[in-house]
UniProtKB/TrEMBL annotation:
CDD domains xref list: TM_PBP2 (cd06261)
Similarity comment: Belongs to the binding-protein-dependent transport system permease family.
Protein name in the entry: ABC transporter permease subunit
Membrane topology qualifier: Multi-pass membrane protein
Every ABC transmembrane type-1 domain range: 91-280
Originating species: Fictibacillus fluitans
InterPro entries per UniProt: BP-dependent_transpt_permease, MetI-like, MetI-like_sf, OppC_N
Amino acid sequence: METPLQTETSQPKPITSVRPFWYKLKQNQMTWVGLGILGVIVLCSLIAPILTPYNPTQVDISSKFLAPSLHHWFGTDEVGRDILTRILYGARISLGVGITVIIMASVIGILIGTISGYFGGVIDVTIMRIMDMVMAFPTLILAMALAAALGPSLQNAMLAIAIVKIPVYVRLARGESLVLREKLFVKSAQSFGINPWRIIGKHIVPNSVSPVIIQATLDVGDAILMIATLGFLGLGAQPPTPEWGAMISIGWKYLLDYWWYPTFPGLLLFLSAGSLNLIGDGIRDILDPKAGR
């Protein structure tokens, strides 16, 4: 008969060990491409005050719509602000908001999902019907509706996107919980009378993390695009905040005459989302055994 100590230690390791993970990561060249692109963008955003002497919100009408040059590498906008400076400072907002939103959604989703899957019954049915109601609407449309109802601001846009992303993580965590609660190490813990909340926190949640991590890495790029979309529609960051979507929202009107205005923010948005998708694909290939087959 197993002792409580044996029961605690007999559970499988929740996440792939570091050495095999690092070995597989080194073999995936596209993941390194994504890491390289994202690393350059993040580094440049962090040292933006060193790279550019301009203020991202300072108006200089005498310098409006200047073409790209040695003084303004990406040109200037309709009120003379340096576009490169605004892009670099905007990277802090776009990347930071995207990562924060996904962390919020994944943490809340895994907690709700594990509770739903472990307890089952009325709790499970109630939670999953609510999640089905949220998922019945297109993600972007629902995020737009929530952001409009809450009011146009960056914080409300973050909350709206987090809400529409939560059901995905709830379903993932619930699916893992339904399998894990039938495992021997969970049954053994239950037979020893261990508190259900301790079982969830010590056994169910750690072993449900891998698919959530995979989904989260793939969703960060999507969250950045959604933040930019809400900003483009005027439901996200408000002027003069240097956010990529808000910059494109104004700049597209001048595309034919001043092509650099919307082009460079759009290019950085494309590179950021693309690099995050490459990283997510690489992590999925490493952590998902089915992908390995």
